[in-house]
Amino acid sequence: MSEPKAPSLAAVIIGRNEGARLIRCLASVSAAVGRVVYVDSGSTDGSLDAARAAGAEVVMLDVTQPFTAARARNAGIAALRAGVPPDLVQFIDGDCELQPGWIATATAFLDRHPKAAIACGRRRERFPEASVYNRLCDREWDTPVGEARACGGDALMRWTALDQVGGYNPALIAGEEPEMCVRLRAKGWQVWRLDAEMTLHDAAMTRLGQWWKRTRRGGHAAAEGMALHGAPPERHGVATVRRALMWGLALPLLALAGMLITPWSLALLLAWPAQVIRLALRDGGTRGAWEQALFLTLGKIPEALGVLEYVARRGLQRPAGLIEYK
Fold first, then answer.
1. For residue 212, is it within any domain?
2. What is the pLDDT along the chain (326 residues), one digit of tens a residue?
3. CA-CA-CA-CA torsion for 302, 305, 311, 312, nearest 10 degrees?
């Protein structure tokens, strides 16, 4: 009896002005898969030449259209479809580096689990010590192992599943991965988080303003996801939007409005430090727990602003613009 044929593998890398980060990404991916497509969103730093030198197929997005990660990934899918489509596709952002052994681990898992459309693993921040914002990213990506509801930007995906749902929603400026996972699960597919090292990521986030923009983008993504899939049973984005509006909008407005009656209404704002203390102690009271508790609570303000921004744009029927933090 002949040996079963090994699945064909390809990778789609997306990026814009990633510099040395892209070169590391290309080297790590080229060593693991047979075909690499790099989709560029208007780089001016030599990324196109670096990708070609590494042997990748290069796709340049039309600069007259708004850039989104979803649109870039779909362009990579289209490039793969133009040839012989692979069995599996590794999606990875250009500021990430694929970890040795990940492809073999994820491929073996998908082979054993035919209902699994996506396998993702542990994404780690390359320089967590550089800033509290980088450390927050590293904790954010430490998600539970097992069957999951969604993946992030880095993941190994089954081509047949991708093709069935038509890839990513190009209209979304963020949150395109969880939204696609909603549609995949509706078709009976599964998403799995493996207990394996997948990628190293370089957030390069060292300023409060960068964290603020990233968090505001998260609020926008949650509101847009809720508009698409917020109805039961999915309730996609509903909890995030509700918490953002309660803590980041309703509570401060209620405290300020109450000042018309009594200055004691400002005591309502004590709920914020109380929430920080509760979350930090719940998670063990370590330095990392206090950092996460503080920024989770503070982050409800930019999240609420992102929700309001989505609502305003939808009401005015204006297309969403990319919210970049670096």
1. no
2. 445 567 799 999 999 999 899 999 999 998 889 899 999 988 898 899 999 999 999 999 987 787 889 999 999 999 999 988 999 999 999 999 999 999 999 999 999 999 999 999 999 999 999 999 999 999 999 999 999 999 999 999 999 999 999 999 998 989 999 999 999 999 999 999 999 999 999 988 999 999 999 999 999 999 999 999 999 999 999 999 999 999 999 999 888 888 778 777 788 889 999 999 999 999 999 999 999 999 999 999 999 999 999 999 888 878 766 667 66
3. -140
Do 169 and 308 fall into the same domain? Answer: no
85 and 14, same structural domain? yes
Residues 185 and 247 grouped into a single domain: no
Closest CA to 67 of 276, 324, 262, 285: 324
Give me the torsion for CA of 272, 226, 324, 129, rounded to 10°. Answer: 50
Show the domain range for 164: 9-206
Could you tell me if 20 and 10 are in contact, meaning their C-beta atoms sit under 8 angstroms apart? Answer: no
Q: How far apart are CA 112 and CA 241, in angstroms?
A: 37
Q: State the pTM of this model.
A: 0.91
